[in-house]
Amino acid sequence: MSRSESPVEVKKGAEEKGKSVVGRLQDWGSSAIPPSLLATLVIALHSRPRQPLPLLLFTPPLFLSTYLSLAGFPTAAGGISAAWSGLYSLLALRRRQGLGAKMSVRGAVRGVAVGVGIVNCVAGGLVYARGDFGRDEEERRRANRWG
User: Fold this and answer.
1) What pLDDT digit, counting tens, does each position of 40-91 carry?
2) For this UniProt entry, which segments traverse the membrane (predicted)?
3) Three-state SS for 3?
4) Which terminus of the chain has a lower count of CB atoms within 10 Å, N or C?
5) What global pTM score does this model have?
6) What are the backbone dihedrals phi and psi of residue 97, each rounded to the nearest 5 degrees, phi first?
7) Taking Cα atoms as reference points, which of 54, 81, 59, 84 lies closest to residue 70?
8) Strand, coil or helix: what is 74?
């Protein structure tokens, strides 16, 4: 341990090294950030030129998943995130693009959106499959966020 590192930082680093892939996917799927990241990328891709169907179809459920995750419903949020992220990725992969379209900033954003959607689908599906709504309710009552 160097002088600049505190014991807490060293312990946290050791825990991160020991996490399995399933543990990392579980953390990703129960987090509120990935669905909102995908919704932001969808907005960026489909606002110019305006394409109202993807904007109205995919962003509200993804933001709902973020809200549910923050409100203490990680199992439900994981299921919603998995379903809508997977659907977006499948539909985005159906569209074929030429090499010139892939090698642009828009193509890079599209690639990141599809990649985040696939990871969200896998991680959210894992959280939903391993989740327990009863345990979520117990955790919400124990935390007592709303007084």
Assistant:
1) 999 999 998 999 999 999 999 999 999 999 999 999 999 999 999 999 999 9
2) 67-91, 112-129
3) coil
4) C
5) 0.83
6) -130, 145
7) 81
8) helix
Domain ranges of the chain: 28-133
The token duo for 121 is: 């689908």
pLDDT for 97 beyond 90: no
Average of per-residue pLDDT across 109-134: 96
Listed residue (116, 23, 85, 11) closest to 77, CA to CA: 85
List CB contacts of 46: < 8 A, sequence separation 6 or more.
54, 55
- Closest by CA to 111, choosing from 122, 101, 121, is 101
φ, ψ of residue 19 to 5 degrees: the values are -75, 140
Q: Of 77, 68, 63, whose CA–CA distance to 28 is shortest?
A: 77
Tokens 């995919």 map to which residue?
Answer: 58
